Amino acid sequence: MIAQDQDEPTKKVETHLRQRNTEALRREATQEVNGTAYLEEDIMRGMTVESIRERMREVQHEMERVNDSMNDMVSEVMQRLEAAGLGKANKHFDSSESSLNKRSSKLPDKVFVRRNSLLNDLFKIKHFQTIYNIFLVILIILFTNIAVYDIMHTGSTNLGLATIRRGFGKFSTALFISFLMTLASFMVYIGFSLWAHHRVGLSPKSHVLKIWDYGAVASMILFQVVFIILPLKAIFVEDLPEVSSIIVLMEQVRLLMKNHAFVRGNVPRVLAYKLHSEKSEELCPGFSKFLYFMFAPTLIYRDNYPRTKEIKWRSVVWYAMEVIMIVFYVAFIFERFLVPAFQEFGIKPLERRTVILSILGNMMPGILVLMCGFYLLLHSWMNGAAELLRFGDRMFYSDWWNSTSYGGFYRSWNIVVYDWLYTYIYKDMYENVTAQNKVISSATVFAVSAIFHEYILAFGFRFFYPALMVSFGLISFLFVLLTKKQRNTAGNIFIWLTLCVGAGCLLSGYSLEYYARVNCPPYEDPILDLFIPRSLICNGFSTAP
After folding, report:
1. CB of 349 within 8 A of CB of 541?
2. pLDDT value, residue 95
3. Which residues are the active-site residues?
4. Greatest CA separation found in the chain?
């Protein structure tokens, strides 16, 4: 009975796929008929033989692209069916009711399939590629205009170079600290391998086994604490500038998440391992698998990932050029919009209305910085790394710009981090801690995300200004609950409006505090100076309305 019930969804999926294939073939046939009609008309107008060949090559390329998309879709559906247990119902489903209830409480796991990033697929459409070209031309004209203006009035131009030199100071030291953190992460693999192989020889009911397991957990926690403290100390001792510090802290958090994912993903394998069973999986993955995972653009551990056949070096070079261009563009935005508005805060009083107008005026630069950060990290950087490593699953984000609810926005904005939070925070909380309470599990996810975002900014800028933590941990969580049932255009407008307002307020707030730290005297107590915003007591506001 259970197997029969599980066959019904499979049959529905197969029927749906047949219908989609039939519709696709019908559309292709219609396109071929229309294409033939157009071809005959073009020939009558004097089209050359060479243009006809070019047209046929385009049609062939389009048919190949449609075929690849259909194959990817079928592969993804089948993998999801197998992950859910629908593909092998007779083998994986027990007849007992308790076993069925136990399985129903499990959330689905991440499924990796070979696919492109969404923007890469959209850029294959000429209309979207033209929009991208227009933005690129506008950027070139903007830079040229500013450069000519500066040269004619001051005799020189900067275009963000001063900000880049200051922010990326001691960059080689930051790279060296990141390299040492990567080497230290290899200790996780060594420790896990030792724990797994020694555990097999211990008696399941012995006290030594419990001591060995608890000792391994304590060692892992101690390693993570030391892994946090030592790089922080290095940042302060070397006095790294802001951008270099943030690079080290982001790499530190990435490695922490990678280490946790590797251990959490392989512990169940060790616990289920049977020494004399012929069907048992390998006890500990090979070091090559761990090494690939440490550099792969994903935070979810698997022994194997879908891979591409070759490296497209032209794409790698273009992604690198995009990263460099966006860095210059963001530095240009900071120098032109933020520095002039707030650099004198604390030196001479600013009228409150001037500050309010500056905050309102920074909404557009704020959303530009937000979108540049998205494109740099989640598109250019991730796709470049994926291309170098031939990593096949490149869905690092989805169409977040079309979201009508904040829940959909956060699920599609940064899928790499979302997958980690879902797999190792939400899923574990939902299944093992909160008795399937979605609200508590979601609140835990937002709390963890807010803490680590604020951790990076607090130690990167050397001050605690919890605006981002409040935004992530409280306001965003409330927006998720308020817009949960929003499905229309008004929801999308609300998301874009709040993103612009939030980005402008956060960028202005952190800029005020940054220049208050530069221009205003510190608190006498260094602990208070770290945690209490200096802009609150800085003589930077005038009494004028």
Report:
1. yes
2. 36
3. 453
4. 90
How high is the pLDDT of residue 340? 78
User: Residue 294's pLDDT is what?
Assistant: 94
| Residue 423, CB-side half-sphere exposure with 13 Å CA sphere | 21
Which residues of the chain register pLDDT less than 70? 1-105, 274-281, 349-350, 539-545
Is residue 392 a contact partner of residue 308, using CB atoms and an 8 Å limit? yes
Closest CA to 375 of 344, 413, 348, 341: 413
What integer pLDDT is reported at residue 18 of this predicted model?
56
Residue 416: what pLDDT?
A: 93
CB 192, CB 262: distance < 8 Å: yes
Burial of residue 175 (CB within 10 Å: 0-12, 13-18, 19+) is: middle
Task: Please tell me the distance from the alpha carbon of residue 425 to that of residue 441, in angstroms, as a whole number.
Answer: 8
Task: List, in order, residues 6 or more apart from 392 with CB less than 8 Å away.
Answer: 112, 113, 114, 115, 305, 306, 307, 308, 386
- pLDDT confidence of residue 98: 37
Q: What is the pLDDT of residue 306?
A: 92
pLDDT digits (tens, 9 = 90+) for 490-506: 888 988 998 888 888 88
Tokens of residue 297, six digits:
């653009």
Q: Helices 49-84 and 2-44 sit at what angle, rounded to 10 degrees?
A: 170
- pLDDT computed for residue 237 by the predictor: 92
Residue 333: the pLDDT is 83
Q: 33-38: list long-range contacts, CB under 8 Å, 24+ apart.
A: 35/59
Q: If phi over 0 gives left and psi between -120 and 50 gives alpha, with beta otherwise, what is residue 463?
A: beta
Helix/strand/coil (H/E/C) assignment for every residue in 182-232: HHHHHHHHHHHHHHHHHHHCCCCCCHHHHHHHHHHHHHHHHHHHHHHHHHH
Task: Return the closest-CA partner of residue 472 out of 446, 509, 444.
Answer: 446
Distance CA 289, CA 173 (A): 29
> At 307, phi and psi to the nearest 5?
-125, 155
The DSSP-derived string for 28-88 is: HHHHHHHHHHHHHHHHHTT--HHHHHHHHHHHHHHHHHHHHHHHHHHHHHHHHHHHHT-TT
Of 72, 84, 64, the residue nearest 113 (C-alpha)? 72
Task: Give the C-alpha separation, 217 to 223, whole Å.
Answer: 10
By the 8 A CB rule, do 427 and 511 touch?
A: no
Cα separation, 277 vs 280, in Å, equals 6
Name residue 229's amino acid.
I
How many angstroms from the chain centroid is the CA of residue 313?
23
Whole-number Å distance between alpha carbons of 234 and 506 = 28
The encoded tokens of residue 318 equal: 């273009």
